[in-house]
Design goal:
11 strands; 37% helix; 4Fe-4S; 439 residues; Rossmann fold; Nuo51_FMN-bd_sf; 15 helices; seven-stranded mixed β-sheet; de novo design (two linked rop proteins)
Length: 439
């Protein structure tokens, strides 16, 4: 797809326009029918009804509709809830995949009254899953957050929303108003429209009234976060998954997915069917997720900090964090992106965007990422080798104030590793994806 611009998911009517990054509306030929229940944003991000988290979206986003489908949540105690979380293996859905039960337990054991933070800011520009949840199933997210707050003895839930997305903000505000009888205070915070604004440390900074950018932290937020207190911070999908567990029980949760990897995951898919949010059970073949021909094309998995799958590599794989990790891939934030054109050129465009999006607060971000973007650009234009790019990847890794340099280096290194023949072809002035090929 080269260097198309990503138009955002209804953000204040103007969308998110990046200088380099690439997701375009590709039309709807061949779309599966009977699946779509909602359309978001100016480009029409389709939200397809799913087996669990997105099962009730046809009923509408109101609290009454939510209660008719899901019922009232119980009031679990910490110890049995931790046991249930361990049994179903719930991991965070924001990218890192950290075990949610361990984070909850750490917040419960730390000193001070905990806070609960739902991070709906979704700084990853190719992701629309939390926006989809906020628009179609907001009360599932809020049920999870309220459950966590009650278990921790917290009196407040903080909701971090994308500052430029008026539709998400309006949906969450409406959902909160419907819960006037809750003995929980909901505080809303508007995040900047920036890639790094959604990182945990950046969210804590925002809540403190400081610039919404990441800073170096020495303790996880679950131990020392908002106002120095333990803070349970996770994204919207994670809290929705918690709500499903509490509302329907362990057995219902285990009915989806595989014995080793129960449950489902929300994916933002950009392929020949357009842009859509789908819910896939773990263990689902990628052929059932992607448009028919796209499984045989290069795919960027996990978002702009993700990893590349070579053409056809996903055909023998499933939606599985562990299965993908075994072959050096990551599900990350659940972004599944099929470029229209050269994956190497696309990777260079993404790297340039990520260099521009850094907080600029440490050397690896301020100096390293622009140099890395320039080096990869030289690779794609045939005037440089991969050696300099690999050296710069090593230089920025594990040295930044946040994980932004590491994620960028991971995506770049994955492109070099997955497409060595394309690197060689570009070095000779060619490209497999240009008319006539060349090289």
């Amino acid at each position: 797809m080269g260097a198309h611009q990503l138009l955002g998911r209804g953000r204040s009517g103007r969308g998110r326009r990046t200088a380099a990054v690439a997701v375009a509306d590709r039309g709807r030929a061949g779309r599966r029918t009977g699946m779509t229940a909602a359309v978001l944003g100016p480009l029409g991000v389709d939200v397809e009804r799913g087996p669990a988290v997105l099962a009730a979206i046809d009923s509408g986003p109101s609290l009454a509709a939510h209660r008719r489908w899901h019922g009232e949540p119980g009031r679990p105690q910490l110890t049995p809830l931790l046991a249930d979380l361990e049994r179903v293996g719930l991991r965070g859905r924001g990218g890192a995949g950290f075990p949610f039960g361990r984070k909850l337990e750490a917040a419960a054991e730390a000193s001070g009254r905990p806070s609960v933070v739902v991070n709906l800011s979704e700084g990853e520009p190719a992701s629309a899953k939390d926006a989809a949840l906020a628009r179609t199933a907001p009360h599932l997210v809020l049920d999870g957050a309220v459950t966590a707050a009650r278990v921790l003895g917290s009196r407040e839930v903080h909701l971090v929303v994308p500052g430029a997305d008026l539709q998400v903000r309006a949906s969450i505000e409406t959902a909160v108003r419907e819960r006037r009888d809750e003995r929980i205070r909901f505080d809303m915070h508007r995040a900047d429209e920036a890639f790094v604004a959604g990182q945990a440390a950046a969210v804590i900074e925002l809540m403190a009234g400081r610039p919404n950018r990441p800073v170096t932290t020495w303790q996880p937020a679950a131990v020392r976060g908002h106002r120095g207190r333990p803070t349970l911070l996770s994204n919207g999908e994670t809290f929705a998954q918690l709500a499903l567990l509490v509302l329907h029980g362990v057995d219902a949760y285990l009915a989806h997915g595989t014995p080793g990897e129960p449950g489902t995951a929300l994916l933002t898919v950009h392929d020949d069917l357009g842009c859509r949010v789908v819910e896939a059970e773990f263990g689902t073949k990628w052929e059932a997720v992607l448009a028919s021909d796209d499984v045989d094309r290069p795919v960027l998995l996990g978002g702009y900090h993700g990893t590349w799958a070579d053409a056809g590599e996903l055909r023998d794989l499933t939606v599985s964090r562990t299965g993908l990790a075994d072959v050096g891939l990551t599900l990350g934030a659940g972004v599944v992106l099929v470029p229209d054109g050269c994956p190497l050129t696309f990777a260079a465009s993404v790297t340039s965007y990520l260099a521009d999006e850094s907080a600029g607060r440490c050397g690896p971000c301020f100096n390293g990422l622009p140099a890395l973007a320039e080096a990869l650009h030289r690779v794609t234009t045939g005037i440089g080798g991969r050696g300099e790019t690999e050296r710069l990847c090593r230089m920025v890794e594990r040295r930044g104030a946040c994980a932004h340099p590491d994620g960028t280096a991971r995506m770049v290194r994955s492109a070099l590793t997955r497409f060595p023949a394309e690197v060689d072809r570009h070095a000779r002035g060619g490209c497999s994806y240009r008319a006539g090929g060349g090289g």
